[in-house]
């Protein structure tokens, strides 16, 4: 599960290698406190992901594991068992 705090956001999307980086595959759902949540079943291994908030790429501040990407920023890394 990925959570992202963005109370004023209108749209938050989770994407990564598991969605082939498509922006429409995992829309996150907002709870009453402005926390956006998504759950994804991942194949075993390390997966790269990013979050798009209202059309802008964002880092997940809760994720400490990161790796550079070819766009000059970093992808978040998640280990799935």
Note the main attributes of this structure.
81 residues; 9 strands; six-stranded antiparallel sheet; three-stranded antiparallel sheet; globular; mainly beta; 0% helix
Protein architecture, described:
The protein has 81 residues and is mostly beta strands. It contains no helices and nine strands. Strands 2, 3, 6, 7, 8 and 9 form a six-stranded antiparallel sheet that branches. A hairpin with a 5-residue loop joins β8 and β9 (74-80). The model has no long low-confidence stretch (mean pLDDT 95).
Summarize this structure briefly.
With 81 residues, the protein is mainly β. It has strands spanning 2-5, 12-16, 26-27, 29-30, 35-38, 45-53, 56-58, 66-68, 74-80. The mean pLDDT is 95.
